[in-house]
Amino acid sequence: MAAELAVHSIPGISISISGRQKLKLSDHQAFTLPRSPYLFRPKFPLLVKNRNVVKGEKHLRAVEEEQLQASAVDTQVSETDPSSSKLVLVIGGSGGVGQLVVASLLNRNVKLRLLLRDPQKATTLFGNQNEDILQVRKGDTRNANDIDPSVFEGVTHVICCTGTTAFPSRRWDGDNTPERVDWEGVRNLVSSLPRTLKRLVLVSSVGVTKYNELPWSIMNLFGVLKFKKMGEDFVRKSGLPFTIIRPGRLTDGPYTSYDLNTLLKATAGERRAVVIGQGDKLVGEVSRLVVAEACIQALDIDFTEGQTYEINSVVGEGPGCDTEKWKELFRSAQIQQMAFGSPAP
Ligand SMILES: NC(=O)c1ccc[n+]([C@@H]2O[C@H](COP(=O)([O-])OP(=O)(O)OC[C@H]3O[C@@H](n4cnc5c(N)ncnc54)[C@H](OP(=O)(O)O)[C@@H]3O)[C@@H](O)[C@H]2O)c1
């Protein structure tokens, strides 16, 4: 059987893309290096149904609220799994990917707990939610003692999408560097998680296994890829059931300052088709919405346990919230890796 990667998408709600917001070198999501590794073509040609990869976008995409054409019906997703018994802890829920994870889980009526450095951000982003559905706790992952053990009580699943900028920026203020966040923060978090956990999903990055090689070494000038890899390895050795998602360069959003309804209407524009690989060979870009959905899907798909996936998105239709289609995508990546790849790092 040919190992063909199926390409699917997040369902179609259209947005307009504005290129007014220029990328800044100081932003992790704004790798303005002339030849960003995230934009390099894969050395290993992935077999995809739609290879219409969007090339070289140099501007951050911004959602223009007034042009959102979504209907609320399109965004309704019902959680069919035993959501009543599920309590998902999200760390980094105020970030670009994290707020989409939170909004989408709220839309699925999944109980959530957020660990935020500034709990007030939850109200700004998600409005006043019922405590039965959304609990917010204060904590900084860099300081193990800062995290009250009660944060982890009853938690069944965890999605960690914390991060900081790859290059020095104001977001490093107070020593919030890649070393502190992507390594020490992840280590502290993982060390505190209950052994009864059903799944830990960690958002990392493509290129973490190649941080000594050009062009990744440029991205890694301040260690972001190295420290993300250290965080990954700690997760792998933790004995906890994990899935690691490594996005390419993130596009769309962040949607900070939008309210929950707007977040739910955010879309990946035309970039809805999903490409998943293994073995750290994939390069390119991916919509934050696609990454958020991948994290949510991985929580419940048994065979993604213990696996690491790279993820991109390209122009085309895609899986939306259809679990069967996501299973096909994850499975295809594993088949391709088994058929053609070296053991996934
Ligand atoms: N940008 C890219 O192109 C790219 C490419 C590949 C992978 N990634 C990775 O993908 C992930 C998601 O990216 P993103 O753009 O959604 O991230 P983001 O918008 O930068 O959000 C980062 C989140 O981490 C939280 N955080 C930072 N330091 C923390 C700390 N010490 N303790 C607790 N929480 C902390 C932030 O909270 P505050 O609100 O308190 O700051 C925020 O919620 C990150 O790991 C990023 O490195 C990004």
Automatic annotation (TrEMBL):
InterPro entries named in the record: NAD(P)-bd_dom (IPR016040), NAD(P)-bd_dom_sf (IPR036291)
Gene3D superfamilies: NAD(P)-binding Rossmann-like Domain (3.40.50.720)
Cited Pfam families: NAD_binding_10
Every NAD(P)-binding domain range: 92-300
Protein name: NAD(P)-binding domain-containing protein
